[in-house]
């Protein structure tokens, strides 16, 4: 084949495929713009409706992937690839990939279940899969938590939806369970009044439900009092630490004996 034949063949290829390639590029540019417009319209629609942030992000992420797959199929058809054949190949490949990625499909299904039943939402403080943290984001396959130590934990949605979830934010309030021990010579009525005053003087402690102070145990070296204030989820640790500090100061000021080492046992409700 001489040089002229190579030139003619190259020219024919360019003439045949150049319009298709140009059309494919234009379709990609226009299609990407349309996808962006659709996402913006959907985002505005969801923002106007009474939808939680978790559902909005999940739907936008899902729609984005579906539209991009449709766009790719259209582009392949434009450049001359038979979409019916491609669909058959894609179906076969999808079956093979699905068998290999059963865990990922399970995580996708788990994400759908989380969106349908809504056991959690963004901003909730939860405990799941041995982790405690605030829900930062619910994605298609995973959920991100932010721990109290500012670490990001990523939990697969399959495991999250199939396991136990403790949601501390659902009711909007938490009870702080504390136990303080005083000496056997201490006046029970006076001790209760001192501890109850510590709770009622704290503005972060709820008036309703009212905090309670009761004798919980006659231990070996102390009379133990169950101290139970209620507060918001966000104020939990402030109430937890403030109650310890203020109770110690108040008991000392009242001359109430605290055994040394004093019996202070923190018990979390199971």
Spell out the blueprint of helices and strands.
Elements (H helix, E strand, L loop, with lengths): L2 H46 L4 H26 L4 H18 L1 H16 L7 E4 L2 E8 L3 E5 L5 E5 H6 L2 E3 L6 E2 L2 E5 L5 H13 L11 E7 L4 E6 L1 E2 L4 H18 L10 E3 L4
Antiparallel strand pairs: 1-2, 1-5, 2-3, 3-4, 6-10, 7-9, 7-11, 8-9
Description:
- There is one protein chain.
- The chain has 270 residues and is an alpha+beta fold.
- The protein is built from seven helices and eleven strands.
- It has helices at residues 3-48, 53-78, 83-100, 102-117, 157-162, 188-200, 236-253, and strands spanning 125-128, 131-138, 142-146, 152-156, 165-167, 174-175, 178-182, 212-218, 223-228, 230-231, 264-266.
- The strands form three sheets. A five-stranded antiparallel sheet has the order 4-3-2-1-5.
- A hairpin with a 2-residue loop joins strand 1 (125-128) and strand 2.
- Helix 1 packs antiparallel against helix 2, helix 3 crosses helix 4 (102-117) and helix 6 (188-200) crosses helix 7 (236-253).
- The protein is rod-shaped and about 110 Å long.
- Mean pLDDT is 81; it is low at 262-270.
